[in-house]
Amino acid sequence: MAVKPTKAEKKIAYDSKLCQLLDDYSQILVVHADNVGSNQLQSIRSGLRGDSVVLMGKNTMMKRSIRIHAEQTGNKTFLNLIPLLVGNVGLIFTKGDLKEVSEEVAKYKVGAPARVGLVAPIDVVVPPGNTGLDPSQTSFFQVLNIPTKINKGTVEIITPVELIKKGDKVGSSEAALLAKLGIRPFSYGLVVLSVYDNGSVFSPEVLDLTEDALIEKFAIGVSMVTSLSLAISYPTLAAAPHMLVNAYKNVLAVAVATEYSSPEADKVKEYLKDPSKFAVAAVAAPAAAASGAAPAAASKEEAKKEEPAEESDDDMGFSLFD
């Protein structure tokens, strides 16, 4: 008969396993595990098997092991995990793509009934329609102020009703009614709270950013830097082209006002003296296109003129009545 390990031996084994995982993996997902059953957790482990490892445990043990490992290895970045270990949480060590692993974890959600005293994670709305309950069950609906009517011997809900609001505790009447209607309004699974990647800790919403979104945010940032630089006349790489263009405009304005001569200023002065030259360039292109079509039309007219006219009956020396 195998001897069961003592608590001290279990702690040593757990500490060794956690330290080994910290050495092997540089990416960690901190997940919330409330209302997650053992069978559900086993399914998640199986789905992530290959490039990820799920580790659950007491927060005090995990914090202690992380501190010891950080002292032994000198890698203080692991200490960033300690403030995240609050509540019923676990760690998913992975070498795969963080977004793909997060999406895989989200797949394993299981529907759950509304139990008495449970804090509702979402709003619960009872849809209208036939409930299949006999008229003797109308007392449940009356207590909850749900409008009903009797239709073909069964209770029918007339309008949709917000039964429970997010953050409220589930009462006994609400739980009983949802159970009778066969509604399992809540779903539970591991929820990613934070992401650890090579010492950096960030929100899981960052994983949903696409390349287009990043480019858009970067462009907005560059635009803000450019505007600020121009406003305070501080040169930056983003504002330099605009500053050069504005300076060139100022030089041209001074040249025009002071009769200073330069090739660029002379062109501006010429346009100011004769604004019609602005229209010449715009008309030149359509005129060129039209000039190409004119010779073709003229050649067609000439071809028509050169065609010999058909001889009439009079030219042949007799008339139609001869």
From TrEMBL:
Gene Ontology annotations for the cellular component aspect, listed alphabetically = cytosolic large ribosomal subunit
Q: Which GO terms describe its molecular function?
A: large ribosomal subunit rRNA binding; structural constituent of ribosome
UniProt xrefs under InterPro entries: Ribosomal_protein_uL10, Ribosomal_uL10, Ribosomal_uL10-like_insert, Ribosomal_uL10-like_insert_sf, Ribosomal_uL10-like_sf, uL10_eukaryotes
Where is each Large ribosomal subunit protein uL10-like insertion domain found?
114-183
Gene name tied to this protein:
LOC101504382
SUPFAM superfamilies, per the entry: Ribosomal protein L10-like
Pfam families, per the entry: Ribosomal_60s, Ribosomal_L10, RL10P_insert
What protein name is recorded for this chain? Answer: 60S acidic ribosomal protein P0
Lineage here is:
Eukaryota, Viridiplantae, Streptophyta, Embryophyta, Tracheophyta
Organism of origin: Cicer arietinum
